[in-house]
């Protein structure tokens, strides 16, 4: 590559330098006649190939080189494209899906902690050990989830900023809740004011941030799927081309020599054929595994996570309607509703829709059962909630409170059942996903290395086969 | 209507006489208008008779005399009380808007059995329910934020509001008040270590928190406009409930709180590091607020209050407020009621 510019740049330089340099007396005469313009290496190569193509050994050499090049190129492109897809599939399985599930977990933990805190407040100063444990466990889970999310967020990415924001808000929130608890124990109503302030922070800042994180991680998951599943068209096209060239070379040999088999070329054809077959079949299997993991795993998981979040929101609103006691209203279509009851109804609709969707997507008994059970729990919850709300609207606050946070027969029981059934369904779908995606990833195992090794062998075969013919001319 | 009636009765005087009277009325109306700043000038286009009536009352009303604009006591049932009494079953309750955040006024004590609402206001509610429905517990409490007190009454979401609500002229145009049952005034609350000494120039460059829709906020806004309060005082922080101000104060988001002295004392009782600064700078009276046209209910509540002042008020004060406002209930006692409203 350095030759052409040198040779083309040299003459004008000499020419332009000449007038400025005075004639040197001591110098001998010009060195011979002006040299013929030097040809480039490429031009020389073309000339040589053209010269070689006039003889049969020369033609054979060219054919051998082209065949070897084609097979090696096919191997290289196959190795490159499959390794790229395998890496994306590996990301799906070991990185983006766990992160998406982790983000859903962060949201769940935060919302659940807030619900547990308001339940504790409703229960009065004598907060139960259960609701305290639940709150503490949720906070720990959220903190641990944030560490994982932070470790996997790329520097400067929006996820990193969101995680940083949540990391900053979590201790603030915890501080407000602790103050609320302390004042509650002393019997001061300012404890309730702290709880409202903490709830405001959770609802207006933290949960939206957690939802952002979940959305971002899901986008990344979809992008990884997009990278893992397309057919490696370049590799397939090169493989077909290489096979065609090998076939043509063998046909040519047969026509010239009447020999049917050339061992080297046959070996090269076989190797190329195996790689091509492996590539197409392996990728198809991997693709169907990944598509299956998306259709049966990811979509189910999304529906289940959405349903779980809706049930958490509904529970939070149910509690807060009793904390606020009608303090907040919304007007919709000229009608005034209690804001929390109104939102509760909306959340329950989302929950019902999510469960129907999850039921539709569940493809086996183990997946359907917990979803059906959750649907049953939801129906009971709705019924109990209606009677609790009637009590509340009739001014029987204590009865309403008992029907919401009391022990047996309270709506809290139904919420817990919905939550644990959804957790079971999520576990199941997570396993299904891992199995299908793992199968897909396994189908790509060895393809990269195998393609590279076989391609080298194939190229060697082609060269050997042509060399065998060439030796007949010596 | 007034105009129509006037026209009918004046028909005998002839057209010229009627016109002269109408002209006189219109003149009086125009002269009165500038003195009533809060009345929208849009009232001008309404029927002259009606407009004249409200204008006249608003013009007569002075905030310091507002507590006198109530109806004389009576025990007679009317349409409003009948409607309350006709509620059946579990719904046979008086629906009352209260606060659940005012320590010793209306609040939920988390450490009592059932965490019931209790306080000075709640005692009065029980007394009213006992008188009207025969059962002190026949009450449905609705917690409402400060800014929702008037809409809740106007929309009929509650029968009445007993929630440390100050009687003033502006609110008299929107709801009806009972006779006063408590006397208080606006005061400044700040940390003990603060340089703020009261409602004065030491508030310059300070952030003050008030409840949105409260008399405190309206007073601060008016005073800052007049220049009584330094213009550099930041009064932009408003919260749904006066108690939320204590949260902001403790978190250092504001420097001081302005609210009724009675409520400020309740806040100070929950945090020993804050105190009331300076004297009360207004005089205000709490009243029970009801729908404007619920005249029978207003008269009934006023009759109940007559009895309550004689028997019940002092006991309730001693129980809830003596610890924070002092043993002497004299400064908090409402004045002898006057019933100047006639219709």
Automatic annotation (TrEMBL), chain B:
Descriptive protein name: Sugar-binding protein
Similarity field: Belongs to the bacterial solute-binding protein 3 family.
Residues covered by region (Disordered): 40-82
Keyword entries, A-Z: Membrane, Signal, Transmembrane, Transmembrane helix, Transport
Keyword Zinc-finger annotated: no
UniProt key word Transmembrane: yes
Signal sequence coordinates: none
Boundaries of every Solute-binding protein family 3/N-terminal domain copy: 93-324
Lineage of source species: Bacteria, Bacillati, Actinomycetota, Actinomycetes, Kitasatosporales
GO terms under cellular component: extracellular region; outer membrane-bounded periplasmic space
């Amino acid at each position: 590559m350095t030759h052409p510019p040198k040779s083309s740049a040299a003459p004008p330089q000499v020419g332009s330098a000449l007038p400025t340099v005075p004639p040197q007396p001591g110098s001998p005469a010009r060195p011979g006649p002006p040299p013929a313009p030097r040809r480039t290496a490429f031009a020389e190569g073309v000339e040589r190939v053209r010269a070689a193509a006039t003889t049969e050994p020369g033609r054979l050499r060219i054919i051998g080189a082209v065949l070897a090049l084609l097979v090696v190129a096919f191997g290289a492109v196959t190795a490159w494209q499959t390794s790229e897809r395998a890496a994306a599939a590996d990301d799906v399985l070991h990185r983006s899906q766990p992160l998406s599930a982790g983000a859903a977990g962060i949201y769940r933990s935060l919302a659940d902690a807030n619900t547990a805190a308001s339940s504790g407040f409703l229960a009065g100063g004598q907060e139960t050990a259960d609701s305290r444990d639940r709150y503490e466990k949720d906070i720990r889970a959220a903190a641990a989830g944030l560490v994982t999310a932070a470790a996997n967020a790329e520097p400067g990415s929006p996820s990193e900023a969101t995680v940083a924001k949540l990391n900053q808000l979590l201790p603030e929130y915890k501080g407000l809740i602790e103050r609320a608890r302390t004042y509650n124990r002393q019997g001061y109503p300012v404890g309730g004011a702290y709880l409202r302030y903490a709830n405001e922070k959770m609802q207006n800042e933290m949960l939206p941030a957690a939802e952002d994180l979940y959305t971002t991680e899901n986008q990344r998951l979809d992008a990884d799927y997009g990278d893992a599943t397309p057919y490696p068209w370049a590799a397939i096209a090169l493989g077909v081309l290489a096979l065609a060239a090998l076939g043509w070379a063998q046909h040519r040999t047969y026509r010239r020599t009447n020999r049917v088999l050339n061992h080297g070329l046959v070996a090269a054809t076989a190797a190329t054929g195996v790689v091509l077959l492996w590539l197409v079949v392996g990728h198809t299997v991997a693709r169907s595994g990944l598509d299956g993991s998306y259709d049966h795993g990811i979509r189910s998981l999304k529906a289940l996570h959405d349903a779980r979040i809706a049930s958490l929101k509904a529970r939070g609103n149910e509690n807060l309607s009793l904390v606020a006691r009608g303090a907040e209203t919304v007007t919709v279509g000229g009608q005034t509703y209690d804001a929390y009851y109104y939102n509760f109804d909306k959340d329950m609709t989302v929950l019902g829709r999510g469960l129907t969707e999850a039921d539709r997507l569940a493809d086996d008994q183990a997946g359907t059962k917990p979803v059906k059970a959750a649907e049953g729990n939801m129906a009971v919850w709705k019924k109990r909630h209606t009677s609790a709300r009637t009590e509340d609207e009739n001014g029987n606050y204590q009865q309403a409170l008992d029907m919401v946070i009391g022990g047996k027969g309270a709506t809290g029981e139904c919420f817990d059942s919905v939550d644990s059934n959804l957790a079971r369904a999520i576990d199941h779908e997570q396993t299904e996903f891992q199995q299908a995606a793992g199968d897909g990833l396994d189908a790509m195992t060895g393809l990269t290395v195998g393609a590279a090794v076989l391609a080298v062998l194939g190229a060697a075969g082609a060269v050997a086969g042509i060399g065998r013919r060439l030796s007949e001319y010596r | 209507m007034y105009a129509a009636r006037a026209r009918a009765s004046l028909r005998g005087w002839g057209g010229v006489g009627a016109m002269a009277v109408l002209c006189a009325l219109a003149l009086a109306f125009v002269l009165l208008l500038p003195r009533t700043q809060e009345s929208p000038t849009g009232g001008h286009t309404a029927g002259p008779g009606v407009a004249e009536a409200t204008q006249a009352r608003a013009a007569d009303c002075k905030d310091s005399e507002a507590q006198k604009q109530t109806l004389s006591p009576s025990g007679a049932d009317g349409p409003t009380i009948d409607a309350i009494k006709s509620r059946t079953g579990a719904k046979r309750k008086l629906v009352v808007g209260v606060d659940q955040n005012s320590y010793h006024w209306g609040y939920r004590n988390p450490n009592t059995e059932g965490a019931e609402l209790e306080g000075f206001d709640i005692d009065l509610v029980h007394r009213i329910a006992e008188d009207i429905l025969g059962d002190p517990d026949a009450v449905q409490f609705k917690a409402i934020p400060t800014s929702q007190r008037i809409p809740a009454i106007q929309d009929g979401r509650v029968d009445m509001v007993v929630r440390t609500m100050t009687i003033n002229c502006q609110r008299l145009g929107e709801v009806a008040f009972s006779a006063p049952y408590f006397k208080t005034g606006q005061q400044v609350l700040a940390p003990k270590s603060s340089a703020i000494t009261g409602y004065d120039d030491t508030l310059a460059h300070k952030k003050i928190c008030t409840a949105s829709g409260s008399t405190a906020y309206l007073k601060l806004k008016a005073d800052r406009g007049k220049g009584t309060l330094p213009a550099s005082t930041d009064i932009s922080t408003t919260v749904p409930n006066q108690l939320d101000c204590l949260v902001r104060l403790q978190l250092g988001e504001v420097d001081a709180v302005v609210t009724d002295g009675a409520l400020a004392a309740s806040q100070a009782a929950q945090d020993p590091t804050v105190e009331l600064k300076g004297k009360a700078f207004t005089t205000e009276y709490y009243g029970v607020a009801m729908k404007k046209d619920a005249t029978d209910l207003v008269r009934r509540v006023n009759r109940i209050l007559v009895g309550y002042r004689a028997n019940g008020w002092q006991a309730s004060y001693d129980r809830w407020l003596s610890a924070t406002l002092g043993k002497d209930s004299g400064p908090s006692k409402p004045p002898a009621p006057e019933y100047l409203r006639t219709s």
